[in-house]
Amino acid sequence: QVQLVESGGGLVQPGGSLRLSCATSGFTFSNYPMSWYRQAPGKERELVAAMSISGRTTTYADSAKGRFTISRDRAKNTMYLQMNSLKPEDTAVYYCHVGMWWGQGTQVTVSS
C-alpha cells in the first residue's frame, strides 16, 4: 500500500522557518522524481520545488529561490522541504508529490 505522510506544518511568524517532511512507503522511493507543491485559498496548486531522480538537479519556483531547499533521505524514504525567511504569502497547504502519488497536505500559516 502506497503511503505519503506529511508532517511539519504549522503556524509560524514572518521570518521564521519550518521543515516539512514526507515519509513514504509502499514503493521504491528513489525510482521517482519528487516535488513539493502548494495551494493557497482561491488559487491553483503550484510547484514550489522539485528534485530529479538522480538528485543532482533541483528546481525552484521564483518565489522559493534562496529561501526553500528540497532534499531527501533515501535510507528513510523521506523527502523534506526546508523553508526559511517565511512570508505571509507562503501561507498554503503544502503537498508532496512522488511519481504519481500525492501526500494528504499539511497546512503552513505564516502570520504574526
Given as residue ranges, the uncertain stretches (5+ residues, pLDDT < 50) are: none
C-alpha-based Rg, rounded:
13 Å
Overall mean pLDDT score? 96
The helix/strand class is mainly beta
Strand content: over 45%
Shape: globular
Count every helix, treating DSSP H or I runs of 4 or more residues as helices. Answer: 0
Number of strands: 11
Helix content: under 10%
**Could you give a short account of the major beta sheet?**
7 strands, mixed
The helix/strand order is EEEEEEEEEEE
**Gap from first CA to last CA:** 40 Å
Write a structural description.
By secondary structure, the protein is an all-beta fold. Helices cover 0% and strands 51% of the residues. It has no helices and eleven strands. It has strands at 3-7, 10-12, 18-25, 34-39, 46-51, 58-60, 68-73, 78-83, 92-98, 101-102, 106-110. The strands form two sheets. Strands 2, 4, 5, 6, 9, 10 and 11 form a seven-stranded mixed beta sheet that branches. The chain has a four-stranded antiparallel beta sheet with strand order 1-3-8-7, with no helix packed on it. A hairpin with a 2-residue loop joins strand 9 (92-98) and strand 10 (101-102).
Observed structural traits:
four-stranded antiparallel beta sheet, 11 strands, 0% helix, 51% strand, 112 residues, mainly beta, seven-stranded mixed beta sheet
Indicate the topology.
Layout: E1 3-7, E2 10-12, E3 18-25, E4 34-39, E5 46-51, E6 58-60, E7 68-73, E8 78-83, E9 92-98, E10 101-102, E11 106-110
Parallel strand pairs: 2-11
Antiparallel strand pairs: 1-3, 3-8, 4-5, 4-9, 5-6, 7-8, 9-10, 9-11
